[in-house]
UniProtKB/TrEMBL annotation:
<comment type="similarity">
    <text>Belongs to the CinA family.</text>
</comment>
<dbReference type="InterPro" id="IPR008135">
    <property type="entry name" value="Competence-induced_CinA"/>
</dbReference>
<dbReference type="Pfam" id="PF18146">
    <property type="entry name" value="CinA_KH"/>
</dbReference>
<dbReference type="InterPro" id="IPR050101">
    <property type="entry name" value="CinA"/>
</dbReference>
<dbReference type="InterPro" id="IPR008136">
    <property type="entry name" value="CinA_C"/>
</dbReference>
<dbReference type="InterPro" id="IPR036653">
    <property type="entry name" value="CinA-like_C"/>
</dbReference>
<protein>
    <recommendedName>
        <fullName>Putative competence-damage inducible protein</fullName>
    </recommendedName>
</protein>
<feature type="domain" description="MoaB/Mog">
    <location>
        <begin position="5"/>
        <end position="172"/>
    </location>
</feature>
<dbReference type="InterPro" id="IPR041424">
    <property type="entry name" value="CinA_KH"/>
</dbReference>
<dbReference type="Pfam" id="PF00994">
    <property type="entry name" value="MoCF_biosynth"/>
</dbReference>
<dbReference type="InterPro" id="IPR001453">
    <property type="entry name" value="MoaB/Mog_dom"/>
</dbReference>
<dbReference type="InterPro" id="IPR036425">
    <property type="entry name" value="MoaB/Mog-like_dom_sf"/>
</dbReference>
<dbReference type="Pfam" id="PF02464">
    <property type="entry name" value="CinA"/>
</dbReference>
Length: 422
């Protein structure tokens, strides 16, 4: 077993000015290559702290992969620090320098003098070609350890990893990239703690492992199996998946890349039903999610964002008496909106939402996060009160996902089983 640590350098990461997508990508790829990543560390552009972090990483890992600090400026110091740790001299590589010069020549620009620094390589190191930038990657093998240095820009780092680092590691581990296989089940309704309670004994398993990932409006249940082949890993996952679906029924709506909008849309298409949507507090987000799915025009007829009371009346036909007596955020208004948009579009099914997304506008009687949703069809009229918490965008997203899930449950005939997710 090879253990690894990912070290990300860059003060901009510590300040939150850049999102560290490199670490996420590398951790996922290492797992697939049979390399166990036990630690991830982020450090700023300071040579003393970079050295401390890399030395610590070398104490607890066989392999250290760094990103960042390979540029031409004075604060790009990662390879110099690594060379110093292992007592290696820095030597100018003529082939690397020629590639850097050619890089600028192709762009019709003179090469700045400080780019020569990027051609300095620790003695005996292996070079990883960079076809998209000027910073070569470096593999240093010394004292029974391996350090792989990669540039920070993801569009440079990822091809370098795929072309050179992945084959290098695959050769060392003798593990096929396909032997670690994952499947993610997507859950809407119960929160993370409820899901954990229902699956608590399954979460102790070691192969396949089961992990929970809380999202804004969903909980993801990731199953990961290690096996000699993908087919065998899938078979191992299948048994656990069936049990998880049974325990969480009917709240698992899909898996992996499936979205709730795509699942609901597929059901509409299979049943040859059409849909119309009226939105207030979500501001068109439900329609946006639906129309992000290819082929949505087969079932999605119209989306109306009726934010003002005037629009609710003029476009959707919500009576002034309803708005005056019950207010815009009420079950009566939601139902009238759904009826109105269904009538307007001639749709088989209509959805409507009205609520208070905040941060202002709430009251003791109608707090921020209060939402009323309605579903209307030829055989059903359903109104539900929902209460969400969070900032404005969170409330909008939770509303949109919940409403689309309610549509899914209606279309599968399972709405009555979903009233008490806890």
């Amino acid at each position: 077993m090879i253990s690894a640590e990912i070290v990300s350098t860059g003060t901009e990461l510590l300040l939150g000015q850049s999102l560290n997508t490199n670490a996420q990508y590398l951790a996922e790829r290492l797992a697939g290559l049979g390399v166990y990543c036990f630690f991830q560390t982020t450090v700023g552009d300071n040579p003393v702290r970079i050295r401390s972090v890399i030395e610590k990483a070398l104490e607890r890992a066989d392999l250290v992969i760094t990103t960042g600090g390979l540029g031409p400026t004075q604060d790009d110091l990662t390879k110099e620090v690594v060379a110093e740790i292992f007592g290696l001299s820095m030597e100018r590589d003529p082939a690397v320098l020629a590639r850097i010069e050619a890089f600028f020549r192709r762009r019709g620009r003179p090469m700045p003098e400080n780019n020569i620094k990027q051609a300095l390589i620790p003695a005996g190191a292996r070079i990883i070609s960079n076809h998209l930038g000027t910073a070569p990657g470096i593999i240093v093998e010394a004292e029974g350890k391996t350090v792989i240095l990669l540039p920070g820009p993801p569009f440079e780092m990822k091809p370098m990893f795929e072309e050179t680092v992945a084959p290098y590691l695959a050769d060392r581990t003798k593990v096929s990239p396909g032997v670690l296989h994952s499947k993610t089940l997507k859950v809407i309704g119960p929160g993370e703690s409820v899901v954990e309670n229902r699956l608590c004994d399954l979460l102790q398993a070691s192969n396949p492992t089961i992990a929970l990932l809380a999202k804004t409006a969903e909980v993801h249940v990731r199953l990961t199996a290690r096996a000699p082949s993908v087919k065998e890993a899938e078979a191992m996952i299948a048994g656990e998946e069936a049990e998880i679906r049974r325990r969480l029924h009917p709240f698992v709506y899909g898996a992996d890349e499936e979205s709730i909008a795509a699942v609901a849309g597929r059901l509409l298409a299979e049943q040859k039903r059409t849909l119309a949507v009226a939105e207030s507090c979500t501001g068109g987000l439900i329609s946006h999610l639906l129309t992000n799915v290819a082929g949505a025009s087969d079932y999605f007829l119209i989306g109306v964002t009726a934010y003002s009371n005037e629009a609710k009346g003029q476009v959707l036909g919500v009576e002034k008496a309803i708005l005056r007596r019950h207010g815009a955020v009420s079950p009566e208004t939601a139902l009238a909106m759904a009826r109105g948009v269904r009538r307007l579009a001639g749709a088989d099914v209509a959805l409507a939402v009205t609520g208070i997304a905040g941060p202002g506008g709430g009251s003791e009687e109608k707090p921020v996060g209060l939402v009323h949703m309605a579903l209307v069809s030829h055989d059903k009229e359903e109104v539900e009160e929902l209460q969400f918490f969070g900032d404005r965008l969170t409330i909008k997203e939770k509303t949109a996902f919940t409403v689309l899930n309610r549509l899914r449950l209606y279309l599968t005939g399972e709405g009555g089983n979903a009233d008490r997710p806890g």
